[in-house]
Amino acid sequence: MFHLLRYFQVPSKMAYLQILLQPRSRAACSFVPLQCSLTGLPKSQLFRHTSSGLSKAQGFHSSCCNWKKKKPPESAPQELDFLRYYMKSLKDTPKPALYLSVAGLIPFVSVPLLMAIQESTYPELVFAQIAYGASVVSFFGGIRWGFALPEGSPAKPDWINLGNSIVPSILAWIALLFKDGLMEAGIIVIMGLGITLHYDLALLPTYPSWFKALRVIVTLVAVCSLIATLCIVNIYPEKHLTPATNKVED
Asked: Would the pTM count as exceeding 0.85?
């Protein structure tokens, strides 16, 4: 008799294992007739027993998924693109700084525009533009010096900050020494504008974001204007604003 009961218990365990491996709907349908034939219980009680067993089995299966190590959320990639990272802060620029910066670009843009319209090269205007660019380069260096002096400033008055603020002034002075070499003077001013921009964005990143965005715009316009002037010098013939007067020796 016990051998007979053991014979019936083994298929019932195998059938319960089938429940864990099969989908819920198919397992319930296949398990109920099998249990009815083995135990002789009514189908309603067996179906209730089967559904409760399935819910436990499914809960056990869902808990197994939680054992897997979840990957930590990936950090957002750092936005190195300047147009997306800094240009958003351009709208926070104070109005006086924005208007004065735009007005300061007029001497840069007007010289190549005037010479292109006249189709002539005026050395006086070219030198005036280069001298103005040299003063702007020196001004950008002075900003760092003034920024490092107040107490509590993030830029300390050390050798790096104060020394870097002097380099643009030296470049501006060297550019003014090339009075007869306009090409050399223009190239030195362009180098000075690029070096000061590199200082403010990369080496000494303590300025507000709106100032960095404004610096990039001002520098790009100034450099493009100087390049256009140097190209016009090599294309159009040279003329003077005032005719040369010949001195007559008595």
From this structure: no
